[in-house]
Write a structure and sequence with these properties.
By secondary structure, this protein is mainly beta. The chain is 2% helix and 51% strand. It has 3 domains: 49 residues, no CATH class; 179 residues, 3 Solenoid (Pectate Lyase C-like); 97 residues, Jelly Rolls. The chain contains 1 helix and 43 strands. A hairpin with a 3-residue loop joins β3 and β4.
Length: 436
């Protein structure tokens, strides 16, 4: 018996039972394996045993006829009959040029056997139902004589994702990626878009996310009118026109700029190496930080910047803070440590009072008692109006006016409560307040 393991074909000639433990093995003397197109065997005289031969997919396309399908659409149509959210299918496409219009189907992913070696010239479209999705991997979409390379249609909230794909718009009038579905989501990861004069890169009414793209356009400006558009870590040579919220982070504009019509731009850590007069213009608002450019910011937009914080950052009114230089937790009280009347100068017995100053305070409390028999004074500090109290002045008896003094630390938004037990006659509770 001869045996082949781990793609090694040595020692596999001869007679007897030939055992193949790896479908990727190949032996020119006895058999030939084609991992996607089929298997042919010669010279096996007594037997053949195959192990672990699960097919990559039953939907394989080869324009030369060496697979189950010769057109991508035929494979998509067949796969769609059995595809579902729990059993998605994949159409694998051998390298080649495919001139055909595609109607993509939900849960039927389309992948190239070799990245960007499958060139599809035609109109590709997708319209999924709510919650449905699919992915395209390693394909090249090229505009036909007229029309777009890809169009997202319909009205349902579906999702399509392109991974390591390329889009070419070269017919003088078409758009590489168009979307008329405002409820849909379109994702592009590691894609290349090349646009000729008269063509357009994007014309989308959907939500779109583009990450690590390379966009080279000499055509008309891209248009974004959907709920949002996000570009991250991308090289861009294109003009973007937007009526929506557009977020641009860590990008490099080799040329082009941003134009808004009542748009909201959020731009951070981005360079605009453009010959345009303005790197952003039009109407709307922009928030930006760490922008590198020689172009101008059009003053017609409402602009605000995110500035670098060099001092301490505090989240509790200044009692504690984080040092931006060392990252350590430090004490950073307000400048004022003198008496303030903002809190008030008196308290009411048995009634909680909240510290609404916005910072912590230290209270010096003076309770005047005119008479008492076996009485106590209690103090409570807490986040609610019924804080737990503790005794601060233990059992006492007085027959004349007596002042009892104690202190309390009250954090911002906390309550202070002075109360008593027994039957003391309290004529007043005065307090002096200092910020902490």
């Amino acid at each position: 018996m001869s045996q082949v393991n781990n793609n090694s074909s040595s020692g596999s000639s001869g007679t007897g039972i030939l055992t193949i433990n790896d479908i990727g093995a190949d032996d020119s003397n006895n058999f030939t394996l084609s991992s996607l197109g089929g298997i042919s065997f010669t010279g096996v005289t007594n037997g053949l045993e195959l192990k672990n031969t699960e097919p990559v997919s039953e939907f394989v396309v080869d324009s030369q006829g060496n697979a189950g399908y010769t057109t991508i659409q035929a494979a998509i149509t067949a796969a769609a009959l059995v595809a579902s959210s729990t059993t998605p299918q994949t159409v694998w496409v051998w390298p080649g040029n495919y001139t055909e219009n595609l109607t993509l189907a939900s849960y039927v992913n389309v992948a190239s056997a070799c990245l960007q070696s499958v060139v599809i010239t035609g109109n590709a479209t997708y319209s999924g139902a709510a919650g449905e999705r699919l992915s395209c991997i390693g394909l090249v979409f090229t505009t036909p004589a007229t029309g777009n390379a890809f169009t997202y249609e319909g009205t349902a909230a579906s999702t399509i994702t392109f991974i390591m794909c390329a889009f070419n718009a070269t017919n003088g009038s078409g758009t590489a990626v168009a979307a008329t579905n405002p409820n849909s989501t379109l994702n592009q990861y590691n894609c290349l878009l090349t646009i000729s004069s008269g063509n357009q890169t994007f014309n989308t009414a959907c939500s779109i996310t583009v990450i690590e793209a390379f966009i080279q356009s000499s055509g008309t400006p891209s248009s974004f009118t959907g709920p949002r558009a996000l570009f991250l870590n991308s090289f861009i040579a294109d003009n973007f026109s937007s009526t929506t919220t557009m977020v641009i982070i860590s990008c490099y504009f080799m040329q082009g700029n941003l134009t808004g019509t009542n748009a909201t731009f959020l731009c951070f850590n981005t360079a605009f190496d453009t010959t345009e007069t303005y790197w952003v213009t039009g109407t709307g608002a922009i928030t930006y930080g760490s922008i590198t450019t020689n172009a101008l910011l059009n003053t017609a937009l409402t602009a605000s910047t995110l500035r670098l914080k060099t001092g301490p950052i505090s989240f509790d009114g200044g009692t504690t803070s984080i040092s931006t230089s060392s990252g350590s937790l430090v004490s950073s009280p307000p400048a004022s440590a003198t008496a303030t009347t903002t809190f008030g100068t008196s308290l009411t017995a048995a009634t909680a009072k909240q510290n609404t100053n916005g910072y912590d305070v230290l209270l010096n409390i003076c309770v005047t008692v005119t008479s008492a028999t076996a009485a106590t004074l209690t103090l409570g500090i807490g986040p609610t109006s019924t804080p737990t109290v503790d005794t601060v002045v233990s059992s006492f008896t007085v027959a004349t006016s007596t002042v009892f003094t104690f202190s309390a630390y009250v954090p911002s938004t906390y309550y202070v409560l002075v109360s008593s037990t027994g039957t003391p006659t309290i004529s007043g509770i005065n307090c002096q307040v200092c910020t902490i």
